[in-house]
Every structure is written in C-alpha cells, then in structure tokens.
Amino acid sequence: MSDVNDNSSRTIIPEDRVIYKPENGIQVAYDNSSMELISGKIVDFWDNGNCRHRKEYQDGQPHGLSEIFFEHGALWMETPFKNGKRHGVLRTLWKSGLTMMRITYKDGLSDGVEEVFDEDGSLVSSIVYHNGKIVI
C-alpha cells in the first residue's frame, strides 16, 4: 500500500481504496487491491473538498474516533469505537453545532443516559440504559 501519513503518524487511506465485508456483526475494512486489513484513518471528501468522514481502524476493525461531517464542513456525528464496537459517548449535532443527541456505549451496548435535544439546545428526552436495556 502506498499511503499518506498525517501529523499523528497514522496512515491515511482514501475511501475509494477500501472494501468492507461483514464479519461477526462488524464491517471489517480491507484494502481493495491487496485485501490486507486496514489500520489507519479512512477518509472521504465532499465534491467541494470538505471532509465527508474520517474513521480510525485497527486490524480492519473500527477503533478510535469515527467522524461524519456536513457538506459545509461542520461536524455532524462522532462515535468512539474500541475493537469494532461503539465504546464511549456518541454525539450527533445540529448544523448550528449544538448537540442533537448524546448516548454512552460500553462494548457496543447503550450504557448510560441517552439525551435528545431540540435545535435550541433544550432537552427533549432522557432515557437511562444499562447493558443495552432501558432502566425504569
């Protein structure tokens, strides 16, 4: 693979060089020419040059931060992964930059408070999860 390195010394792989295959419930990423497992940042861009998404992978599995951006460049969603599973606080944002939703994951399961906000930033709903199940 001929790749580019960014300042964090992680390999950057263009999205068009990646093929995804489902394995044990995880979308595993391979280099589409060598079929090697991807380790590094997979990136894709909007036609205007702004980043569309940036996803960190280790040994073919999502590991680290996955970010998706609006076409105008602002962050839309960030999801932390650990060993192929969501792990940490997932956030989606309105175009204004205010939080739309936030939920904590542990080993791929909802675990903590899920909060949903309207475009003005007011809390609309709040649900507590533990090990993927709603706590009443």
Word description of this protein:
- By secondary structure, the protein is mostly beta strands.
- The chain has two domains: about 10-75, no CATH class; about 85-135, no CATH class.
- It has no helices and 15 strands.
- It has strands at about 5, 10-15, 20-25, 25-30, 40-45, 50-60, 60-70, 75-80, 85, 90-95, 100-105, 110, 110-115, 125-130, 135.
- The strands form two sheets. Strands 1, 2, 5, 6, 7, 8, 9, 10, 11, 12, 13, 14 and 15 form a 13-stranded mixed β-sheet that branches.
- A hairpin with a 5-residue loop joins strand 7 and strand 8 (about 75-80).
- The protein is flat, with a radius of gyration of 16 Å.
- The termini are far apart.
- About 15% of the residues are buried.
- Residues about 1-10 have low confidence and may be disordered.
Write the layout of secondary structure elements.
Elements: E1 4-5, E2 11-14, E3 18-23, E4 26-31, E5 40-45, E6 51-58, E7 61-69, E8 75-82, E9 85-86, E10 88-93, E11 99-106, E12 109-110, E13 112-117, E14 123-130, E15 133-134
Parallel strand pairs: 2-5
Antiparallel strand pairs: 1-2, 3-4, 5-6, 6-7, 7-8, 8-9, 8-10, 10-11, 11-12, 11-13, 13-14, 14-15
